């Protein structure tokens, strides 16, 4: 039971910290890709979506080459005592990167549904870009943020390939649910642990999806109420 609780706790911790850095970045990327026109926009979109279609092992190798002890970025961070390879921080980095496309996509779609005519009308009325963002873009993006956050959290919870390649499978340090199931399947006496981990994974995922549906419904009613008040 101790091992089970340790794995669940570590998985939730890794998924939380993965979301902590990936969700704000996904929000910014979704806004930029949906509302700005600039040279390299399509290239940026391709780069953002690459972790979704690349083999996760390749993503892990890229992270290892960049953030490993002798990597391009990891080598610069090592003298500062900052390390991502083979620890929980690296697991959160890998999980967040793989989840990033699933975070960006719904947020970007939410921003793309904002009426450009209404935005131009507000600009003509004298509202600053920040005021228009708060009044128009931010409320419209909330459903996308919720959907992206849930998808990103679920993906981070279940991430396997990039994590095991970048930070290995270290019990108590980087061994999340997927890695623990993989390790337990190699043994012949840990069938019960595999079953309990699968049940826990299904329960956490189902709870997250149910919570997102409830929150989306609440947000829809709230936004609908605000629009009705403005029209009165």
TrEMBL record:
It is found in: Cell membrane. Residues 8-220 form the ABC transmembrane type-1 domain. It comes from the Bacteria. The keyword DNA-binding does not apply. InterPro entries: MetI-like (IPR000515), MetI-like_sf (IPR035906). PROSITE patterns: ABC_TM1 (PS50928). It is a multi-pass membrane protein. Keywords: Cell membrane, Membrane, Transmembrane, Transmembrane helix, Transport. It holds the Pfam family BPD_transp_1. The chain crosses the membrane at residues 14-34, 46-68, 80-104, 136-154, 193-216. Belongs to the binding-protein-dependent transport system permease family. This is ABC transporter permease subunit.
